[in-house]
Amino acid sequence: MLHTETSMNALRESGDALADATVATLFERGETGTFNTLMRFFSTAGSPVPEGLPDVAREYLEATQAPPSWVDWDEMERARLFFVDNNVHIATALSFASMPACYLVPRVAKLLSATHGLDYPSTRMAATGQFTVYLMRPDAFEAGSRFIPAAQKVRLLHASIRHHLRREDRWDTGTLGVPICQEDMIGGQMFFSLLVLDSLHRLGIHLTEEGADAYFYAWRVVGAMLGVDQEAVPTSLADARRFLDLYMVRYMGPSPEGARLTRQLIDLYEEVVPGTLLDPVVSALVRYLIGDTSADWLEVPRTPWDTAVKAVPRLLGVLETIEDRSPLGAWALDRLGHLTTVFELSSLTRGRVMHYAIPEQLRKEYGVPDGPPRARRWTPPSATFTG
Predict the structure, then answer these.
(1) d(CA 370, CA 306)
(2) What distance in Å separates the CA atoms of residue 239 and residue 232, rounded to the nearest whole number?
(3) What is the count of structural domains for the chain?
(4) Residue 224 domain-assigned?
């Protein structure tokens, strides 16, 4: 689908009918607390639905318990192998490019400030990282996996935020559109897929066209399971580029919430980095990946490392060449990447499993109205938006 200003405006007025109806009924009947308590014990696909779960929740879980019928499992396996091959780089891109990009959309930054999670950035980041790791496991869509229940809960989490903002009259729908609307859900899908690929390319990571296509495809599947309108979502990297160009030009800009969220993210990762000498690398890497204009809008501080970090692609390029030419080197680097990702996630979660619960209220102070074949190198589609 070729999107226009008119079609994008229509997406702003649409949410997720199934999840919205489920959440509305849970709140209407006062069953949200019961749902959250019981769903803590429902964390693996194929497990019996907890006894005592509200009927409307049971019906929702049954309706969303399987991936879309159109899934190409060979492509999903290619995506998983791509993730294994690039896991630490993908984690870097998600943390230092995708998340700040979300903060560049003022209404999205406002939405993220709507729940108690704003005051616990490690929880928010850990939940995102855990969700991605669940997705890329070999058994992600099989009985016993944790991905499908996580997707079901995240979808309801989004619906609950829409419910709160509209019910409590804390969102100007006429100006801003529906909270967590289809336009923003598709935009988020682009941040976590296309923008990650852009960042890997910028970091000097060797990507194949097949690997890039597969990774993007995996996030299409995720979007479908999170309630994204499949008639509207881009289905190719070229279409994704057109959508993302239009979306960002329409909305990106500074906001107090975006700057605060970015500051929290930088502080969080400075705590993860051992010692203090390398702390400025975090800010420098964010600035390098999102660009100076965006970094200035988010009040990312300039540091002496801003120039030095530009050498990272050359260093990673050397490592990628070793990986390309040596099976042993590829194994060692993949293993190191896996351990690094595990360390980062464990540092954020502190060894806990993150739960995706429906918030029963908003923040009180919220007052804002073998990997893929190493063949052809992938290069990002060129920008298409001309004004």
Answers:
(1) 35
(2) 11
(3) 1
(4) yes
The answer to whether residue 30 is domain-embedded is yes
**Model-wide pTM > 0.85:** no
Residue type, 250: R
**Amino acid identity at 287:** R
DSSP tag of 310: G
The token duo for 320 is: 């990628």
Buried b (16+ CB within 10 A) or exposed e, 334-362: beebeeebeebbebbbeeeebebbbbeeb
- Find the domain containing 294 and state its range: 5-349
Q: Which two tokens stand for residue 197?
A: 């690929």
Positions of the chain with pLDDT under 50: 116, 118, 318-319, 322, 328-354, 364-375, 387
pLDDT tens for 193-222 read: 999 999 998 888 888 999 999 999 999 999
Tell me how far CA of residue 64 lies from CA of 69, 150, 204, in angstroms. Answer: 12, 11, 38
Q: What is the CA radius of gyration of the chain?
A: 20
Residue 46 falls in which region: left (phi positive, over 0), alpha (psi -120 to 50) or beta: left
In a domain, 375, yes or no: no
Asked if 86 and 244 count as a contact pair (C-beta separation under 8 A), the reply is: no
Pairwise CA distance, residues 75 & 72, whole Å: 5
In a domain, 241, yes or no: yes
Q: How far apart are CA 228 and CA 19, in angstroms?
A: 11
